[in-house]
Amino acid sequence: QKEEWKQLKDAKSVSKDGKEVLLGANIGTPKDVVGAVENGAEAVGLFRSEFLYMDASELPSEDEQFEAYKEAVEGMNGKQVVVRTMDIGGDKDLPYLPLPEEENPFLGYRAIRISLDRQDIFRTQLRALLRASHYGRLAIMFPMIATVKEFKDAKAIFEEEKANLIAAGVPVSDDIEVGMMMEIPAAAMIADKLAKYADFFSIGTNDLIQYSMAADRGNERVSYLYQPYNPSILRLIKNIIDASHKEGKWTGMCGEMAGDQVAVPLLLGLGLDEFSMSATSILKTRSLLKKLDANKMKELATKAVEDCETTEEVVALVEEYTK
Ligand code: PEP
Ligand code: MG
């Protein structure tokens, strides 16, 4: 089996009946690009930039960040690297950036909410990203977008920094895709509106599931509610993917669910364009895709979304369709 996987390293990610998708890696530092490439990643679907901040003892400078993003895009050699802007807050804090004590940190001052408030930090990061874009294929996405206004505000700041750099003669790529994480149910419900502004969506199921089910992703007492295959979650995912396609945009997924072997048939059937996961799951997933008929999985997904009432029913249906 491992031998079979190795042979798929440079192969395309394609279903039995010829539907192509992209398999990407999730990374935390530019050094992780090596493992991504070794495991046959066709992209980096999520670079969690907050690790640059967490691994430091003070806010990383523009130059430090620039070097890190440049290393990542150069390491991927022309393949797309989606960098997510700083996602601090929730369960991730910075010792040198004291955040207010909050009753519900996961519902509080977090991610893009901090970036829009602390524009000094945000603009520094955007300038570093813009400068790095010249050295490869870089895309940017904003975490925890809940409203159209947040996306527009973040994008406007990006455009300002881009214009400033260009005016200063700094080389910047002219085709940087700017997208957003889909990890808040409110955003998923207005995906059709957001798709007019965002170049792409990346579904963050780790958070989307916890916010949809109102069940803390780390709390064992309510973990029975943490159900990736629940029809409610599948409906949200379908809404997001369909909305992006209507606008000619693409949707990826960078939550754990993207590399889940039960979820992959469903996601293929729902029309997901890009699956981003830990590098070590890529070859296994490419091998699974080869065995799946995308048209049949479409039928499976439709049934799961329209007919199933429970997670158990969905899992049984996946088994029936993939055996
Ligand atoms: C997610 O929420 O699914 C995600 C990929 O982001 P993180 O796990 O870093 O919150
Ligand atoms: Mg998240």
TrEMBL record:
<comment type="similarity">
    <text>Belongs to the PEP-utilizing enzyme family.</text>
</comment>
<keyword id="KW-0963">Cytoplasm</keyword>
<comment type="function">
    <text>General (non sugar-specific) component of the phosphoenolpyruvate-dependent sugar phosphotransferase system (sugar PTS). This major carbohydrate active-transport system catalyzes the phosphorylation of incoming sugar substrates concomitantly with their translocation across the cell membrane. Enzyme I transfers the phosphoryl group from phosphoenolpyruvate (PEP) to the phosphoryl carrier protein (HPr).</text>
</comment>
<keyword id="KW-0808">Transferase</keyword>
<keyword id="KW-0418">Kinase</keyword>
<keyword id="KW-0762">Sugar transport</keyword>
<keyword id="KW-0598">Phosphotransferase system</keyword>
<protein>
    <recommendedName>
        <fullName>Phosphoenolpyruvate-protein phosphotransferase</fullName>
        <ecNumber>2.7.3.9</ecNumber>
    </recommendedName>
</protein>
<keyword id="KW-0460">Magnesium</keyword>
<dbReference type="GO" id="GO:0008965">
    <property type="term" value="F:phosphoenolpyruvate-protein phosphotransferase activity"/>
</dbReference>
<keyword id="KW-0813">Transport</keyword>
<keyword id="KW-0479">Metal-binding</keyword>
<feature type="domain" description="PEP-utilising enzyme C-terminal">
    <location>
        <begin position="2"/>
        <end position="293"/>
    </location>
</feature>
